Amino acid sequence: MAATPPDEAERKEDGLYNGSPSVTSLQREISLERKASEYTQISEAKVLVVFTGGTIGMKAHGGVYVPEKNYLEKTLMEMPMLHDKAYAEQLKEDNFQFENAPDFFQENAPLVLPLSKYGKHVLYWILEYDPILDSCNMNMDDWGQIAADIEKNYQYFDGFVILHGTDTMAYTASALSFMFEHLGKPVILTGSQVPIYEMRNDGRDNLLGALLIAGHFVIPEVTLYFNNKLYRGNRVTKVANQSFQAFDSPNLPPLVTMEVEIHVGDILTGWPNGRSKVEWDAVFRCNTIERFRVQTDMDPNIGLLRLFPGMSLQTVEHFLSPPMEGVVLQTYGTGNAPDGRHDLLQAFKDASDRGILIVNCTQCPKGGVDCYYATGKVLLDAGVIPGADMTVEAALAKLSYLLAKKDVTAQERRELLSENLRGELTMVGVGKESISLTSNKFLRHLARALQLGSAEEMHAVRDALFPALMCAAAKNGDNSTLQALIQQGGNMDAKDYDGRTPLHIACSHGHADTVEFLLKNGASVYQRDAAGHTCLRDAIKFRNFPIIKLLVKTGANLSNHITPIRIGIELCSAAAHNDIDGLRSWILAGADPNQPDYSSRTALHVAVGEGHVEAVKYLMDHGAIPTLQDPHGTTAVIEARIRDHMDLIPLLDKDACCTEPHPAKGAAPAKEEPVSPSKRRFSLGAKFFSKKNTESGD
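Given the sequence above, the corresponding structure tokens read:
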């Protein structure tokens, strides 16, 4: 039995020992921690803006636009639609900290968008490149730098915006779409035709729209936002140099068209009627259970060859000579070439036989390649790979990306060029079933009962009913029903009345097979419910270990949606109750077992203080450090001696008794004078929070 502390009789009714901070002081700490938690989980989103350069950040000097260093952020801070000074000041007063993020983001205060109609502030940090580039000077190394910066900061932000010049923006968007593998968060490129400092410009609306989408909607693609439209990045091309409508996506409609409001099926109802709509059916999702990663290497030995009447054989042969490895061949019409030019066809065949990859793309801005004519089939016979409806920018990026993969065979590269890797091409005969009055018996009867008569009305019914149906199927672990709903256009991330997705529901009910099914069909691990919780938080709460492992494997993490102090409190609460499953759940999810709570005491301090042998063993086996000190210089070993838990000392590190103690993370330096047991602060706050959480259902 543990010895009773000498000041046991002086314990306050709230469970605190005499000598610890006053109840009022502690309650203020608790209030601040909860307030900070609410900021992070419910009312804020964090977005990283990577400012590479471009017209949007240029300034006129001597009659021409040139990049201006360290000027964009200063300008944005004076624009009320792009920076809410009052809220930024409130964050400063509340000592807002971007915990666990790299030093740059902790040392620099964010800019803040005004409160949106969805009740959320978007906080954004600007990472400005040095030098700032005109996009004409952008090359593959710069693509790699952008990709590496996003990979380095991926876990800390909800979304990313890349400010880029318009001249090569479509090339960068296409390249990044392939370089980002298993992407689960929005990455949006934008810029402007007129600098944002000018009185009349398109930069303000473009940046504002990109930030709103990146901070509010999990559209896990590389996209391009311009003139109120969000396009898939590898489907766009620049079509005008003197118009605000500078980009177009000829073969795929926009994913979002911004109008009076942004319509999302589970948030607003009644489209179109002046409301924008996120086309969730068209959003491309990764159907893999893999963590986000980046391939920064791209092969530069690629080229673009455009056919024209009378092209000489020498030109083609010289173009196809080493070190050329991949070619985008721009042909006529639906992918045609002169079938009477046997010399050219033989040159293409010889190059293909040597291992050069040649992709056939049409010169027409709209439409794709198809072998309807003999003049198209001759290229196929020569080994030229049909490029379907890919843009030239996408085809070049795809070639460069695949050629850089050294673990892929030549035949596999040829096959992958014809596959839809990132939504860059339309697969003929592949797609979700369209909804009509006769496509589904259930919908047909429902349409008859509700007297529905148009496809638009049917879509409205689907958007209203499918979220509830999909969440119900997830609750029951009914994968076949989920599959049927997906085939009818169901959105994997559709939310119920409480903001919970089918993945949230499946994680809460422990259906590991359904969780895997949902992930393989594109469900996002980054969606949050109305309380700000991700599916990982639900899996932790219900101690579903296989599901936690699966989510972490897919890229789920604790960063950015739960504060380190809250993690420390949860660990200490589990330790106080000898809750091994709770400790295991948090540690499996990536929690640091040495994370202190609000009083700078770790779970090991608490477990030792309570005399819980099992919890001490588990924590020691999973990296707990027994020499960490609380603010009063107490280590776990000292705690065991004070509490007379001498049986626990052998369980601690064998060198703990003679190792120099050191402060826990975030702990204040230890005082030099000895601290008596009656004046120490015992970490009973864990029990306090556990009691409060039980009462609130957290």
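The first helix runs from residue 23 to 43. Try to locate this feature in the token string yourself.
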